[in-house]
Amino acid sequence: MLLGLYVYAQDFDIYVSDAGNFNNPPWKIFKYDSSGGNAVTFIDTMLSWPQDILFLEDSDLVLISNLNTNRITKYDSDSGNYLGIFANGMSGPTRMKIGPDTLLYVLQWSGNGRVKRYRLDGSFHSNFTSIGVNQSIGMDWDQKGNLYVSSFNGKNIRKFGPTGADSGLFVNSNLQGPTNIWFDDNGELLVLDWSGTTVKRFDTNGVFVSNYLTGLRQSEGVDFMPTGNILIGNGWTKAVKMYDSSGSFIRDLVPSGRGGLLKPNAVRIRLKSNLTSVQKLNPIIEELSIHPTYGNLFFIETQNWTHSNELNVVDINGRVVFETRVNKSITIWEANNEENGMYFINYFNSKGQKYSKKVMVIK
């Protein structure tokens, strides 16, 4: 067996969903390099008002939610070729996220507004909530596993317990048309306000604190660069804006209309491992085998490693969260104290070479 030798680097591509003329085409998924250049049309097939982009790396798939056709379509994650329908049975799907239970959570713009759950093979699992959120278009979990969902026309954020029980409205003021939401490291909630001009901050009790950043209009779609900078789609100017972690504007990373961009409504960063060299390690082959790749407990098989005994785990910002010296065939990493998100498990051999694999911590 011959394995590729991968070197971890903070290199990535940027994928942007283009809502086009909203209910009317053109609709596209664009791909840009990490500097916002080299625009290419990644997907333009079987789209109908696309809403979100989600990569399933283990399956080599990328999923697109389509509001008009009530479907989530699937494509090859590298080529963008259409592969069929991943899931249906929802009414106007908007945001998608992998939840703490490793199921796919899907929001609905219309219908009963309940949060739906699907297995990662596309089969329906259950309705997570019994209470609907009309025109729901943003979700995230706090550190206790509570789910929060934004309502665009309701101008509020609703809270659900870890089992889906309704906990009432968490935010019911100071919003004009919320879209994406996320929690920061302090447990405070940040909200994109599409109908306003700001990203707003609310404390752990849902009380308005301040405007986190300003200068936006029709803001929708957010993701975080390995440096900690934030990318936000700005529909009014047909651009993707970049801010630092304090909320200060840096520049338009994707300038207005680049590649034909009309209305960015989802932004997704996809980190990539660059194949820098391939070599045979005879007579022993070094492997990095990790099971599972989702969850909070990871078994790292190290039985064939002979050139080194060093291993670490870094988060998306490059911070080392775990390191050890390998002295047995299986090393266990428990990620109970880490935030949900993407991490990189790295193995270093005595020649300074590195093997790296991505895992997703979901609690």
Query: Within the CATH hierarchy, at the fold level, what is the topology of the largest domain?
Result: Neuraminidase
Strand content: over 45%
Using DSSP, what is the number of strands? 32
The helix content, as a percent range, equals under 10%
Q: Count the domains.
A: 2
The level-1 CATH class of the largest domain: Mainly Beta
Distance between the termini: 35 Å
Rg measurement, Å: 21 Å
Query: Based on the structure, what is the oligomeric state of the protein chains?
Result: single chain
Structural class: mainly beta
From the spread of the alpha carbons, the general shape counts as: globular
How many alpha or pi helices? Answer: 0
Uncertain stretches: 1-9, 273-286
Strand order of the largest sheet: 26-32-31-28-29
Give a quick account of the main beta sheet: strands, pairing sense, barrel closure: 5 strands, mixed
CATH superfamily of the largest domain: TolB, C-terminal domain
Which CATH architecture of the largest domain would you pick?
6 Propeller
Average pLDDT, all residues: 87
Q: What does it look like?
A:
By secondary structure, the protein is mainly β. The protein has two domains: 9-273, Neuraminidase; 280-361, Sandwich (Immunoglobulin-like), CATH 2.60.40. It is 0% helix and 53% strand. The chain has no helices and 32 strands. It has strands at 4-18, 28-33, 40-43, 50-56, 61-66, 71-76, 82-88, 93-98, 104-108, 116-118, 124-127, 136-141, 147-151, 156-160, 166-171, 178-183, 189-193, 198-202, 208-214, 219-224, 230-234, 239-243, 249-254, 264-278, 289-291, 294-295, 297-301, 310-315, 320-325, 330-334, 341-348, 354-361. The strands form eight sheets. A five-stranded mixed β-sheet has the order 26-32-31-28-29, with no helix packed on it. The chain has a four-stranded antiparallel β-sheet with strand order 3-2-1-24, with no helix packed on it. Strands 4-5-6-7 form a four-stranded antiparallel β-sheet, with no helix packed on it. It is globular and about 55 Å long. The chain starts with a strand and ends with a strand.
